[in-house]
Amino acid sequence: MISALAAAGLALSTIVIPPAVDPPPPGQITIDVVTVNGSGCRLGTAAVAVSPDNKAFTVTYSEYLAQVGPQAKPTDFRKNCQLNLKVNVPGGFTYGIAQADYRGFADLQRGAKGTTKASYYFQGMSDTDQRSKTFNGGISDNWQVTHQTPVASIIYHPCGERRNFNVNTELRVEKGTSDPKKTSFMTMDSTDVSFSTLYHFAWKKCPK
């Protein structure tokens, strides 16, 4: 189990936070990574940090890369990751996810394409609608995909229950008609917090 570290210096000032039902609870929220599964996030290569204002948390990957090309293995075209997280919140509060921002870098040759897929859900509850975005080559640039949920449609962790939060993501790169001698790749990884996956909390007080 890996305890989440406080996120000092997260670059959140430029991100618009959707309105929450209630303000964030006082005190620091922590997140424990219970299990990590997937070809894109070997144990020890995914870290979680909570923002100081308790409005968001960031998942940062260090080895999340899908690729095709002369140096790639046959299985490298698709990478995935499932995180099982325990979110520790003060008593009397519950949370949902109002918005998720997925970021990375894509270097795709002309004729190739890359796809990112993502979903999240509370353990034992229905999965969210899986959303995907496809990027066509040729590009060599940072990418970002934002999934925003209307306030009225946010699903909250049931008050008084213990349900971990699951995050599923996938990267896929297809060679298509691109030059087989050239490599195309897509990442969801970085040592820079600007290349990370950010989830925005929506908070609610539990009934007494």
Structure description:
The protein is mostly beta strands. It has one domain (2-205). It is built from no helices and 14 strands. The strands form 2 sheets. Strands 2, 4, 5, 6, 8, 11, 13 and 14 form an 8-stranded mixed β-sheet that branches.
Portion in helices: under 10%
pLDDT under 50 segments (min length 5)?
1-20, 190-194
Largest sheet: 8 strands, mixed
The secondary-structure element order is EEEEEEEEEEEEEE
Backbone structural class: mainly beta
The percentage of residues in β strands lies in over 45%
- Spatial extent as radius of gyration: 18 Å
Organism: Lentzea rhizosphaerae
Keywords: Signal
Signal peptide: 1-20
Protein name: DUF4360 domain-containing protein
Which terms would index this structure?
DUF4360, eight-stranded mixed β-sheet, elongated, signal, 14 strands, 208 residues, single chain, DUF4360 domain-containing protein, mainly beta, six-stranded antiparallel β-sheet
